[in-house]
Amino acid sequence: MYRQDIGGSMAHAAMLAAQGILSQADCDAITAGLEGILQDLNSGALCIDPQAEDIHMFVEAELTRRIGDVGKRLHTARSRNDQVALDLRLYLRDEVAQLQALLKELMQVLVKQAQQNTDAILPGYTHLQRAQPITFAHHLLAYGMMFQRDILRLQDVAKRINVSPLGCCALAGTTYNTDRKMVAKALGFADIAHNSMDGVSDRDFCVELLAALAVIMMHLSRFSEELILWSSWEFQFVELDDAYTTGSSIMPQKKNSDMAELVRGKTGRVYGDLMAMLTMLKGLPLAYNKDMQEDKEAVFDAVDTVKLCLQIFAPMLDTMTVHKEAMYAAAQKGFINATDLADYLVKKGLPFRTAYQLVGQLVALCIQQNTVLEALPLETYRQFSPLFEGDLYEEIDLHTCVEKRISQGGTGPKSVQAQIDLLKEFLQNETDFH
């Protein structure tokens, strides 16, 4: 967090000078010294001393070494308690913006794949049993809606992160006439912490971020599970690119969905980070306690993990091959047009529950005869009800089943296009996350 630490110190020095607490000459010397340290750290000319107590003391000691005792004036009217809270908020603010950008990239890939697969029909599942026909685009867009919520959730978290604690000092504020709002404005914060004890001890924003990251990983894990199933021999709906799969050490025919499996596995790691943070905080009295050093390992690990998973997921989906024929072949089995057959009878005047029971008998007959609803002759249908006519075959055709799902949010073509347009508009409006 050296960039954030140095940036915060520059803003703090400028405020001290503006308030007459620090001379302008001392402020200029401190600022120049800090800029030199930042430049040297960025270039590698200066390395962080691992023996230093923390990043704050390292920067202050290096500054004093370079400009003398003037460097010791920098820490006036602040504490490491509010300094570390500031650095963490600045760091996470940048990381949240990167996370939102990565989610946006993933959503763009999803929308692209959906546009290319509006005609791909596959079974929709409940209880992992074939239920009703849907399009692959519709299925993909469900995850698009999840990732849209993830971006919105991160935007909400960012509001709580974007509050400046600097000037709260150790816990009780300071005797100096500081201008906390000046520092907050200089650093791009929307507000200041209005209670100094809360300002140094608040880590709610870390908990909120970890919770949002856990939800992102839950979404990625559910998607990974489906990709793993779809790419298996039992489904063969999709094929992942070789760059995101591996072979077996002894079985030459294997093509394992390892990247998806790793994403699924790392979900538990992020959940663990959230629980570690909650457990660390649950018994802490006000204000600052050393336990709170544990916040950074958990939140840094979760942020890094989610970023890595998102960086893998988008290109993995982008290079995925979709087997529309296999999807359609699966959709032709499992009687997933049974509901449509019942709806056909309802339109003819039969109560739905009666139609439901009648179609159930027809499905049982098909199972007994090892056939499907589409293959039953009209004479057989009419033995069950005189309402059946020749137009029933058009009604239970899979393409018809999909096309007549006209309700908003459904799998019908117009609805799917509306969903694509909705996400496109969202992505166009989300151009800058800073």
Tell me what you see in this structure.
The protein is mainly alpha-helical and about 425 residues long. It has helices spanning about 1-20, 25-45, 55-65, 80-115, 135-160, 180-185, 195-200, 205-230, 260-280, 295-320, 325-330, 340-345, 350-370, 380-385, 390-395, 400-405, 415-430; strands at about 120-125, 130-135, 165, 190, 240, 320. It folds into 3 domains: about 1-75, Fumarase C, Chain B, domain 1 (Orthogonal Bundle); about 80-175 and about 190-330, Fumarase/aspartase (Central domain) (Fumarase C, Chain A, domain 2), CATH 1.20.200; about 340-395, Fumarase/aspartase (C-terminal domain) (Ribonucleotide Reductase Protein R1, domain 1). The strands form 3 sheets. A two-stranded antiparallel ribbon has the order 1-2. A hairpin with a 2-residue loop joins strand 1 (about 120-125) and strand 2. Helix 1 crosses helix 4 (about 80-115) and helix 4 (about 80-115) packs antiparallel against helix 5. The longest helix is centred in the first third of the chain and has 37 residues, at about 80-115. The protein starts with a helix and ends in a 5-residue tail after the last helix. The model has no long low-confidence stretch (mean pLDDT about 95).
Any chance you could write out the topology, listing elements then pairs?
Elements: H1 2-18, H2 24-43, H3 55-67, H4 80-116, E1 121-126, E2 129-135, H5 136-161, E3 163-164, H6 180-186, E4 191-192, H7 196-201, H8 204-230, E5 238-239, H9 258-281, H10 294-318, E6 321-322, H11 324-331, H12 338-347, H13 352-369, H14 378-384, H15 392-395, H16 398-403, H17 413-429
Parallel strand pairs: 3-4
Antiparallel strand pairs: 1-2, 5-6
